[in-house]
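Researcher: Structure prediction, please.
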Amino acid sequence: MSVRVGIIPEHFSTPIKFSQSKKFFQSNGLPEIELVDYPSGSGHLITSLNSGEIDIAVGLTEAFVRGLANNGDSENYEIIGSYVDSPLCWSISTGINRTDINSVDDLQNGKKIGVSRIGSGSYVMSYVLGIQEKFSKPFFKDFIVLDNFQNLRKSVNLVEGIEGSDAFMWEYFTSKKYYDNKEIKKIGEIYTPWSSWVIIIRKDLANKNEIASNFLKSVQQGISYFNANKEESVEYIYNNLDYSKEDAVNWLKTVKFSDDVTKIDFKKNIENTVDILKTANVITNDNAIDNLKRFVRME
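Model: Predicted structure follows.
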C-alpha cells in the first residue's frame, strides 16, 4: 500500500528525508512511502488530510490543534506523535522599502496581515502576537490569504498583481535569506509557547495502528541519524533546501527534535495551546479539550 506523507519542504523536513533515503521506512515494512511537498504550509496539509489527498502529515502544532478543537468529529485526522520539541521562532516581516512600518508597534493601527491560509500557523500566530503585544481588539484590520511564502513577500512589497498586506510571519531561518538579499525587512520575532511540530494521520487509514507505529519508528530513526551526522545534515540542507551553510549550522544550534516521537505532552502542547488560542478567539468551541482528547493518541 502506498502511503502519502505531506511535509513542508524546509530544513525541519531533513530527518524525514533521511528516513526515506536511508531506507528506514523500507526496513520497517513501509516500502511505498511517497513524500509530498506542501510549501504553502500546515493549513494546506489539513485540507489535504480531510480530502484524502494525503494519509500522514508533519506540521505545526497550533494549526492542527486549532482544527481539531473547533471542528471535532468533522475532522478526519488525529495527532499521533511529536516531532520537534523546541519552540518555533516566527519572524515578522514587511517590505524592504516600507517606511510606514518599522516595528511591531506599527502593526496595531488597522494593518493587514498576510497569511498562507486561514487556520495556518501564520494566521494563528498573528493572534498570539496580538495577545503578547496587548494590541486593542480586533488586533488587525484584515487577513490577506496569499497561499505561499513567495506571494507573502511580494504582497508586503506591494508588487502589482498581488493583493497588498503590511506584514507577515514565517519561520526565521526560512526568512533570513530574504533579509540578506534585501527583499524584505525584519521588524520583530515571536516564539511559540509550545513544542512546534506534530505528526498526524488520517483516521480511516487502512491498518492504521501498524502503519502509524512503523512510521513513527522510522521517523525516530531518521531523527537519530540526523543527530549523529550533523555535517551530513548541514550539507543536505544547504544543497537541497535553499539555505546557506552558515544558516544551516546556526539553525542546528536552535532545534531539538523529539527524543520519543510517540510521546505527546498533552498539558503543554495541547491544553496550553488551546488556552492561548481561546484567548485570541482562534478557538471558539467550549468543548475543545474534550474534542482533542478524542483525537490525540497518547501512549
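Model: The longest strand covers residues 77-84.
Researcher: Thanks, that helps.
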